[in-house]
């Protein structure tokens, strides 16, 4: 299932605190586009649905519609700086045909 990096979790928890949504789950949705790519959406959701899959990652309560589960299997949500001062959430998802794994900048073994 989907997991969060510590950077993504910190940003989500900070946003939840700032907006008074500390005890509200983050809903993440995914759908496949016509070219095979996966499109995502997310937002705090205090309504919940009976068939939702609910779980925690890095201390963040997440909810996902069962129809989205296969699209997000082994995906990671990260929060990265693209340009100085420009941060964005990104999904690293091996289920997306356009996904390219990040290059390992560490020493090779």
Automatic annotation (TrEMBL):
InterPro entries: HesB-like_dom_sf. This is Iron-sulfur cluster assembly accessory protein. It comes from the Bacteria. Gene3D superfamilies: HesB-like domain.
């Amino acid at each position: 299932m989907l997991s969060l990096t510590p950077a993504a979790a910190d940003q989500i928890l900070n946003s939840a605190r700032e907006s008074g949504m500390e005890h509200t789950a983050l809903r993440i949705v995914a759908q496949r586009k016509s070219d095979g790519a996966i499109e995502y959406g997310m937002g705090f959701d205090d309504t919940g649905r009976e068939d939702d899959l609910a779980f925690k990652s890095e201390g963040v309560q997440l909810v996902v519609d069962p129809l989205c589960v296969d699209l997000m299997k082994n995906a990671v949500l990260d929060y990265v700086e693209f340009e100085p001062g420009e941060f964005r959430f990104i999904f690293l998802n091996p289920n997306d045909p356009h996904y390219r794994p990040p290059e390992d900048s560490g020493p090779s073994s």
